[in-house]
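Please describe our next protein:
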Amino acid sequence: MKRIFSLPATRYPLRSKRGFSLVETLVATAIIVMATVGPLNLAGQSLAQANYIKDQIVATFLAQEGLEIMRNIRDVQQPVGSMAVIDSYATSCSFISNSGCMVSGTKLLIDDSTYGVEACTGSSGCPYLNFNPESSIYNYDTSASIGTTIYKRTITVEKIVDGKEYRIHSVVSWERGYGPRSIELIENLFSRTW
Protein backbone atom coordinates (compact mmCIF):
# COMPACT_ATOMS: atom_id res chain seq x y z
CA MET A 1 0.00 0.00 0.00
CA LYS A 2 1.26 3.35 -0.98
CA ARG A 3 1.11 6.40 1.18
CA ILE A 4 -0.47 9.43 -0.39
CA PHE A 5 0.60 11.94 2.17
CA SER A 6 3.70 11.80 4.15
CA LEU A 7 4.46 13.96 7.12
CA PRO A 8 7.94 14.96 7.88
CA ALA A 9 9.33 13.37 10.97
CA THR A 10 9.54 16.24 13.36
CA ARG A 11 10.38 15.97 16.94
CA TYR A 12 8.03 17.79 19.26
CA PRO A 13 9.31 18.48 22.71
CA LEU A 14 7.26 16.79 25.41
CA ARG A 15 5.37 19.20 27.59
CA SER A 16 5.40 18.93 31.26
CA LYS A 17 2.44 16.84 32.43
CA ARG A 18 1.44 19.50 34.85
CA GLY A 19 -2.27 20.31 35.48
CA PHE A 20 -4.03 22.74 37.76
CA SER A 21 -2.87 22.66 41.31
CA LEU A 22 -5.31 22.34 44.16
CA VAL A 23 -4.82 25.99 45.14
CA GLU A 24 -5.59 27.19 41.61
CA THR A 25 -8.75 25.08 41.54
CA LEU A 26 -9.91 26.46 44.91
CA VAL A 27 -9.26 30.05 43.81
CA ALA A 28 -11.20 29.53 40.56
CA THR A 29 -14.10 27.92 42.47
CA ALA A 30 -14.18 30.79 44.98
CA ILE A 31 -14.32 33.35 42.16
CA ILE A 32 -17.20 31.51 40.48
CA VAL A 33 -19.11 31.21 43.77
CA MET A 34 -18.69 34.91 44.56
CA ALA A 35 -19.80 35.83 41.05
CA THR A 36 -23.03 33.78 41.34
CA VAL A 37 -24.01 34.28 45.00
CA GLY A 38 -24.37 38.06 44.70
CA PRO A 39 -26.90 38.02 41.84
CA LEU A 40 -28.83 35.11 43.41
CA ASN A 41 -29.07 36.99 46.71
CA LEU A 42 -30.23 40.10 44.87
CA ALA A 43 -32.89 38.07 43.01
CA GLY A 44 -34.19 36.63 46.30
CA GLN A 45 -34.39 40.08 47.87
CA SER A 46 -36.18 41.40 44.79
CA LEU A 47 -38.83 38.66 45.02
CA ALA A 48 -39.39 39.37 48.73
CA GLN A 49 -39.70 43.09 48.00
CA ALA A 50 -42.15 42.41 45.17
CA ASN A 51 -44.37 40.36 47.53
CA TYR A 52 -44.23 43.12 50.15
CA ILE A 53 -45.22 45.76 47.58
CA LYS A 54 -48.08 43.56 46.30
CA ASP A 55 -49.36 43.16 49.88
CA GLN A 56 -49.19 46.93 50.41
CA ILE A 57 -51.09 47.66 47.21
CA VAL A 58 -53.86 45.16 48.02
CA ALA A 59 -54.11 46.48 51.60
CA THR A 60 -54.35 50.07 50.36
CA PHE A 61 -57.14 49.16 47.94
CA LEU A 62 -59.02 47.28 50.69
CA ALA A 63 -58.70 50.24 53.07
CA GLN A 64 -59.93 52.60 50.34
CA GLU A 65 -62.87 50.28 49.65
CA GLY A 66 -63.83 50.47 53.34
CA LEU A 67 -63.95 54.27 53.14
CA GLU A 68 -65.96 54.15 49.91
CA ILE A 69 -68.53 51.79 51.44
CA MET A 70 -69.05 54.18 54.35
CA ARG A 71 -69.32 57.11 51.93
CA ASN A 72 -71.87 55.12 49.91
CA ILE A 73 -73.94 54.53 53.06
CA ARG A 74 -73.96 58.27 53.69
CA ASP A 75 -74.79 59.16 50.06
CA VAL A 76 -77.32 56.49 49.11
CA GLN A 77 -78.81 54.89 52.18
CA GLN A 78 -79.77 58.03 54.14
CA PRO A 79 -82.11 60.96 53.49
CA VAL A 80 -80.50 64.26 52.52
CA GLY A 81 -79.12 66.08 55.55
CA SER A 82 -79.35 63.00 57.79
CA MET A 83 -76.36 61.26 59.31
CA ALA A 84 -78.46 58.94 61.50
CA VAL A 85 -76.98 55.67 60.19
CA ILE A 86 -73.40 56.96 60.39
CA ASP A 87 -74.19 58.37 63.84
CA SER A 88 -75.28 54.93 65.03
CA TYR A 89 -71.91 53.56 63.88
CA ALA A 90 -70.12 56.20 65.97
CA THR A 91 -71.20 54.15 68.99
CA SER A 92 -71.05 50.58 67.71
CA CYS A 93 -67.88 51.05 65.64
CA SER A 94 -65.82 53.23 67.96
CA PHE A 95 -62.33 52.63 69.30
CA ILE A 96 -63.53 53.01 72.86
CA SER A 97 -66.65 50.85 73.12
CA ASN A 98 -65.82 48.19 70.55
CA SER A 99 -63.03 46.71 68.49
CA GLY A 100 -64.38 48.36 65.32
CA CYS A 101 -66.65 47.11 62.57
CA MET A 102 -66.31 45.06 59.44
CA VAL A 103 -67.84 46.25 56.18
CA SER A 104 -68.61 44.24 53.09
CA GLY A 105 -69.55 45.88 49.82
CA THR A 106 -71.39 42.77 48.65
CA LYS A 107 -74.03 43.16 51.38
CA LEU A 108 -74.95 46.62 50.08
CA LEU A 109 -76.07 44.97 46.86
CA ILE A 110 -78.78 42.92 48.57
CA ASP A 111 -80.30 45.88 50.46
CA ASP A 112 -79.34 44.51 53.86
CA SER A 113 -80.75 46.43 56.83
CA THR A 114 -77.27 46.53 58.37
CA TYR A 115 -75.88 48.17 55.21
CA GLY A 116 -73.07 45.62 55.28
CA VAL A 117 -71.66 46.93 58.59
CA GLU A 118 -71.31 44.59 61.55
CA ALA A 119 -69.50 45.03 64.85
CA CYS A 120 -66.39 42.91 65.28
CA THR A 121 -66.52 40.67 68.30
CA GLY A 122 -64.03 38.66 70.25
CA SER A 123 -60.51 39.36 71.38
CA SER A 124 -59.01 38.93 67.91
CA GLY A 125 -61.08 41.76 66.41
CA CYS A 126 -62.44 41.59 62.90
CA PRO A 127 -62.14 38.32 60.98
CA TYR A 128 -59.88 37.77 58.00
CA LEU A 129 -61.25 38.79 54.63
CA ASN A 130 -61.94 36.01 52.14
CA PHE A 131 -61.14 36.11 48.43
CA ASN A 132 -63.38 34.68 45.72
CA PRO A 133 -61.18 33.84 42.71
CA GLU A 134 -64.18 33.58 40.37
CA SER A 135 -65.42 37.13 41.00
CA SER A 136 -62.11 38.62 42.26
CA ILE A 137 -63.96 40.10 45.25
CA TYR A 138 -62.79 40.29 48.87
CA ASN A 139 -65.59 39.78 51.41
CA TYR A 140 -66.57 37.91 54.57
CA ASP A 141 -68.44 35.10 52.78
CA THR A 142 -67.39 31.72 54.14
CA SER A 143 -68.48 29.43 51.29
CA ALA A 144 -66.30 26.49 50.45
CA SER A 145 -64.94 27.88 47.16
CA ILE A 146 -63.60 31.00 48.83
CA GLY A 147 -60.18 31.13 50.45
CA THR A 148 -59.14 33.07 53.55
CA THR A 149 -56.58 35.81 52.99
CA ILE A 150 -53.97 37.40 55.25
CA TYR A 151 -55.88 40.71 55.46
CA LYS A 152 -58.09 42.05 58.28
CA ARG A 153 -60.05 45.26 57.71
CA THR A 154 -61.38 47.29 60.64
CA ILE A 155 -63.59 50.36 60.28
CA THR A 156 -63.98 52.78 63.17
CA VAL A 157 -66.19 55.87 63.29
CA GLU A 158 -65.35 58.88 65.41
CA LYS A 159 -67.87 61.67 66.03
CA ILE A 160 -66.36 65.11 65.38
CA VAL A 161 -69.45 67.35 65.21
CA ASP A 162 -72.71 65.67 66.23
CA GLY A 163 -74.88 65.05 63.16
CA LYS A 164 -72.55 67.02 60.89
CA GLU A 165 -69.06 65.51 60.73
CA TYR A 166 -67.62 62.04 61.38
CA ARG A 167 -64.08 60.75 60.97
CA ILE A 168 -63.86 57.29 59.40
CA HIS A 169 -60.73 55.19 60.00
CA SER A 170 -60.14 52.24 57.70
CA VAL A 171 -57.28 50.03 58.87
CA VAL A 172 -56.11 46.95 57.00
CA SER A 173 -53.57 44.78 58.79
CA TRP A 174 -51.74 41.69 57.63
CA GLU A 175 -48.78 39.54 58.61
CA ARG A 176 -46.29 37.70 56.47
CA GLY A 177 -42.69 36.56 57.00
CA TYR A 178 -41.44 40.13 57.44
CA GLY A 179 -43.70 40.79 60.44
CA PRO A 180 -47.02 42.53 61.11
CA ARG A 181 -47.96 45.47 58.87
CA SER A 182 -50.94 47.79 58.59
CA ILE A 183 -52.25 50.63 56.48
CA GLU A 184 -54.66 53.25 57.83
CA LEU A 185 -56.68 55.63 55.70
CA ILE A 186 -58.75 58.40 57.29
CA GLU A 187 -61.56 60.44 55.79
CA ASN A 188 -63.94 62.97 57.28
CA LEU A 189 -67.57 62.59 56.18
CA PHE A 190 -69.85 65.61 56.33
CA SER A 191 -73.62 65.72 56.24
CA ARG A 192 -74.65 66.07 52.59
CA THR A 193 -77.06 68.82 51.65
CA TRP A 194 -77.85 67.94 48.03
